[in-house]
Amino acid sequence: MLLQLEGAVAEGARHVERPVAELEAAIPEGDHDFRFRHDLAVEVGDALVGECGFGGGGHRRHLLAMDRTTVGIAGMRCKQDAGRRRRTGPALARDPTPDAAAYRRNEDPMPTAPYMYLDGSIVPYADAKVHAFSGVVKYGCGVFEGLRAYRSASGNLLLFRLAEHIDRLRFGMKAMRYERILPHDEIEEAVVSMLRANDLREDTHVRVIAYLGGDDPLHQTGPVGLIAGALPRPSRGVGGGLHATVSSWRRIADSALPPRVKCTGNYVNNRTAEIEAVQDGYDAVLMMTADGKLAEGSGACLVLVRDGRLVTPDVGSDILEGITRDTILRLGADITDRPVAERRVDRTELFAAEEAFLCGSGQEVTPILSVDRLPVGSGEPGPVTLALQERYFAIVRGEIPEYAAWLTPVWED
Ligand SMILES: Cc1ncc(COP(=O)(O)O)c(C=O)c1O
């Protein structure tokens, strides 16, 4: 029994869970390399429709229909990418780590998508490994990026400001004196091919890490490797909000561990502050510089609204020069009709501000509702923050053509 899948799935179909082993057992032996990506299937009448990856390297969605006795491929839209590597390794859904059903249901905490990019190959999540004595493990000398891709109205997946993230990653490799700075195109190809391998069209977070492998002394500068993976994760959307605290831990200084470099080792500082805040019952943490001015959050930049004007710690305040911060600086002046102030910011300005928010690729634009149990402004998301959120989410989903240059579509259709 063959089904016209996309249509049939839409009408009267319901999702059912079947163990992957059962789904795979239904596939007859043959000259194919099908793998179920997760243990969800769709039941239509007597038929099960499983969604599977196609092992030959095509990166489209392929669906397999079966009535438990007959198996056939229906709705096959296989576009084989000639010359791409054939995937090898264990069936994806049998890999130990991704909780495939939770991944499919978009549950929190969501695991990383089943395929990752590692040094020129697409590999199953479980095989994305570096040596235990590599430079990145021993000395924390990786550099990384976190960015997001958003589903557009037409069903494409749009990477937001990929070029700027790649530029910052390459700056990090330079600052860390890597012997080889990976070319821009190679990094872009890694990200896009990884997303295609995972057949992703939903909102997702993407992590890219350039690292030092080998087993060399502290001053090693190579060999240089590249990793990319995706964590499917819905956008936080408009509204919401966080209760924050100011950490007792100070932000690392440019003169010691430069926060401008998004280096893996730096995040011991962010992690220390975030753990303290979370264990004390807060949602988010703000860090101050060694001389007591506000710097940033553990994974996002800080912006205040004072007298209707956006104010943010300047780039000399031991912050990561955030790409979302740059986006907000560009949008903010239009929304407030006032130039944005980049300057040193005092801690007590948090209590004087009408509004405050965190901004970052992962954090997006998220209101801060209180700091150390004192409300920020009214204690609700304020009008400037809400207006910025509306505009930000319209831009990232490709709804404002003026900003199309910030978007990299993953799919050709
Ligand atoms: C410490 C820190 N600050 C700020 C940001 C925000 O940067 P971006 O907007 O480029 O994601 C991040 C996120 O990567 C971060 O880790």
From TrEMBL:
Name of the protein in its database record: Branched-chain-amino-acid aminotransferase
Biological process according to GO: isoleucine biosynthetic process; L-leucine biosynthetic process; L-valine biosynthetic process
Region of interest called Disordered, as start-end residue ranges on this chain: 80-106
Catalyzed reactions: L-valine + 2-oxoglutarate = 3-methyl-2-oxobutanoate + L-glutamate; L-leucine + 2-oxoglutarate = 4-methyl-2-oxopentanoate + L-glutamate; L-isoleucine + 2-oxoglutarate = (S)-3-methyl-2-oxopentanoate + L-glutamate
InterPro entries: Aminotrans_IV, Aminotransferase-like, B_amino_transI, BCAT-like_C, BCAT-like_N, Class-IV_PLP-Dep_Aminotrnsfr
Protein family membership: Belongs to the class-IV pyridoxal-phosphate-dependent aminotransferase family.
Species per Swiss-Prot/TrEMBL record: Acuticoccus sediminis
EC number assigned by the record: 2.6.1.42
Keywords of the record: Amino-acid biosynthesis, Aminotransferase, Branched-chain amino acid biosynthesis, Pyridoxal phosphate, Transferase
Function: Acts on leucine, isoleucine and valine.
